[in-house]
Design brief:
single chain; mainly alpha; two-stranded antiparallel ribbon; about 60% helix; elongated; binds arginine
C-alpha cells in the first residue's frame, strides 16, 4: 500500500515500483523525518487544523517510534516506498485516523528537502570535526619538526629551503578553507521548506516563522515553486566535500612521494602502511593511495548531481531522489578519507638528516643572488652571475659550500667574506620577511594562530537541538 494508491486501478508493476523505491537509502533520514513531522504536527495543532488530542497522540507516537528506531536500527525497515511512507505507516498502525491526519497540507516534496537539510545540519559538524582533527595532526607535526629544514618544490624540482613545519601548515591551511566551505554549505541548507506544499504553498494557516524557529532554521524559503526543487545546498555540500577530497588527495600525493625511497623525508608507520604479497621488502602507502583514488568518487558525485539538476523543469521531479545517495556517498568518502589521512599523518616520523641534506646545495642560488642584490647589483645581473656559477658547479659536481673565497670573488667582486654564510638553508629561511613566509618567527606565529583556530572552532557550539521536543 503506497501513500497514493487511491487513484490507481491496478497494482504497480514491480519492475517500475521497485525502481522508484528509496527506503533502502533514505532510511538514513529517519531521525530527521520524525523531527520534521513533530514540528509539523505541532504547527497544525497550533493552527487548530488538528485537535489537541490528535496532536498529542501523533506527537507521542512519533517520539515512541523515534525511540524504537534509535534503540534498534532494524526497526526502520519494511516494504515501504520511502522513509516518509514508513513513518506514516507506523503512525497509522498505532493510532489509526489521527495518524492519517498528519499529512494535512504537507507534501513529500517539501518534506524530503526539509529532511535532507536537517540531516546535513546534523552531519556537517562531524565532517568539520574530522577535518579539524587532521589540522591538529598537521599542527603537531609542525611543532615536532621544530627548526628542521626541507626543500620546497615547484614543477616538482627543488626550489627553496623551507621549514618542515611550514610544509605541514600549508596543508592545514587548505583544510581550514574546507572547514569554512562546509559551513557555507550548512548555511545554504539553513532554510525551512515547510509551508510550500507540493508546489503552490499550503492552504492551512501554519506559522512558518515559528516553525522555522522551532526547527532551528534561520529563515524560511522565499518561493514555494523554487523550494520544491531547489537542491543548491546539495550542490554546495558536494562541492565542499569534493574540494576537501582534492586537498586530501594532494596531501596524499606529497606524502606518497616524500615517504618513498628516493626522498625518504618521512617514514610511514608500520601501522599505516601495507606490504606486498610477493616482494618482502615493500612498504606501500595504500591508505594514501586510496585517499587519492577516492577523490574521483567525490568529484564524480558532484558532477553527476550537477548533470541531474540541469535539465529539470520547475517544481519537484523524481530525478531529485538521486540527491541522497550522492550526499551519503560523498559524506562517507570524506569521513573515511580524513580518518585515514589522520592515521597516516599523526604517525609519520621525520628523517631530519634526509630533509636537511636535501635542503642544501644549489637550491640556495636565489639566496646567493639576493646577496648580490643587497650589495647593489641589479637582480637581473645577479641572476646571470649566479646562473653562471651554478653551471660551473654543476659541471664540477660541487655546490656553493665547496667554493673558496677566491672562487667567490672570481665569480663577482661584490662577494664579501660573509657570502658563504648567506648560502645556507638556515640563512635562507631566516631571510624571509613576510608573515606568510617560512621565516622561523613567522612559522611559530602561524602555528600559534592555527592552535588558536583549533580551540575557537572546535568543538563547535551545538546548534539548538530540534529533537528536544
Ligand atoms: N523519495 C522521494 C525523493 O527522494 C520523496 C519525494 C517524493 N515526492 C513525490 N512527489 N513523488 O525525492
Amino acid at each position: 500500500m503506497t501513500l497514493w494508491s487511491g487513484r490507481f486501478d491496478t497494482a504497480p508493476d514491480p519492475a517500475a515500483f521497485d525502481f522508484g523505491i528509496s527506503f533502502g537509502f533514505d532510511r538514513a533520514l529517519f531521525e530527521d523525518d520524525v523531527t520534521g513531522s513533530l514540528a509539523w504536527a505541532e504547527a497544525l495543532g497550533a493552527a487548530a487544523v488538528l485537535s489537541a488530542e490528535d496532536t498529542q497522540a501523533i506527537m507521542d507516537v512519533l517520539r515512541a517510534i523515534r525511540e524504537e528506531g534509535r534503540r534498534d536500527p532494524a526497526f526502520v525497515s519494511g516494504p515501504d516506498e520511502d522513509v516518509h511512507s514508513f513513518v506514516e505507516r507506523k503512525l497509522v498502525e498505532r493510532i489509526g485516523d489521527a495518524g492519517r491526519r498528519l499529512h494535512t497540507g504537507r507534501s513529500r516534496n517539501e518534506q524530503v528537502s526539509l529532511d535532507l537539510r536537517l540531516y546535513l545540519r546534523r552531519r556537517i559538524p562531524l565532517l568539520q570535526a574530522a577535518l579539524a582533527r587532521l589540522v591538529a595532526a598537521c599542527a603537531d607535526q609542525a611543532e615536532q619538526a621544530g627548526a628542521a629544514l626541507m626543500p620546497s618544490y615547484t614543477h616538482l624540482r627543488r626550489a627553496q629551503p623551507i621549514l618542515v613545519a611550514h610544509f605541514f601548515l600549508s596543508h592545514a591551511s587548505a583544510l581550514r578553507r574546507d572547514h569554512a566551505k562546509l559551513q557555507a554549505a550548512a548555511d545554504d541548507a539553513d532554510a525551512l521548506t515547510l509551508g510550500s506544499g507540493a508546489i503552490a504553498g499550503t492552504s492551512y494557516p501554519v506559522d512558518t516563522a515559528l516553525l522555522a524557529r522551532r526547527l532551528g532554521f534561520s529563515r524560511v524559503v522565499r518561493n514555494s515553486i523554487d523550494a520544491s526543487s531547489d537542491r543548491d545546498f546539495v550542490a554546495s555540500f558536494l562541492f565542499a566535500a569534493s574540494l576537501a577530497m582534492v586537498h586530501l588527495s594532494r596531501m596524499a600525493e606529497d606524502l606518497i612521494i616524500f615517504t618513498g625511497e628516493e626522498h625518504g623525508f618521512f617514514e610511514l608507520s608500520d601501522a599505516s602502511a601495507t606490504g606486498s604479497s610477493m616482494m618482502p621488502q615493500k612498504k606501500n602507502p595504500d591508505p594514501l593511495e586510496l585517499v587519492r583514488g577516492k577523490c574521483g568518487r567525490a568529484v564524480g558525485r558532484l558532477t553527476g548531481w550537477l548533470v541531474t539538476m540541469k535539465g529539470l523543469p520547475s517544481g519537484y521531479n523524481k530525478d531529485l531522489q538521486e540527491d541522497k545517495e550522492a550526499v551519503f556517498d560523498a559524506e562517507h568518502t570524506l569521513a573515511v578519507s580524513s580518518a585515514a589521512a589522520h592515521a597516516v599523518v599523526s604517525r609519520l616520523s621525520l628523517n631530519v638528516q634526509r630533509t636537511g641534506h636535501a635542503a642544501s646545495g644549489l637550491m640556495l642560488a636565489t639566496d646567493v643572488a639576493d646577496y648580490l642584490v643587497s650589495r647593489g647589483v641589479p637582480f637581473r645581473r645577479a641572476h646571470e652571475v649566479v646562473g653562471a656559477m651554478v653551471r660551473r658547479l654543476l659541471a664540477e659536481g660541487r655546490d656553493f659550500s665547496d667554493l673558496t673565497m677566491a672562487q667567490w670573488r672570481d665569480a663577482s667582486e661584490m662577494f664579501g667574506d660573509d657570502a658563504p654564510r648567506a648560502a645556507t638553508a638556515l640563512a635562507s629561511v631566516q631571510a624571509r620577511r613576510t608573515p606568510q613566509s617560512t621565516n622561523p618567527d613567522a612559522v611559530r606565529a602561524a602555528l600559534r594562530e592555527c592552535r588558536d583556530w583549533l580551540i575557537s572552532e572546535n568543538p563547535k557550539p551545538q546548534p539548538p537541538s530540534p529533537n528536544a521536543q
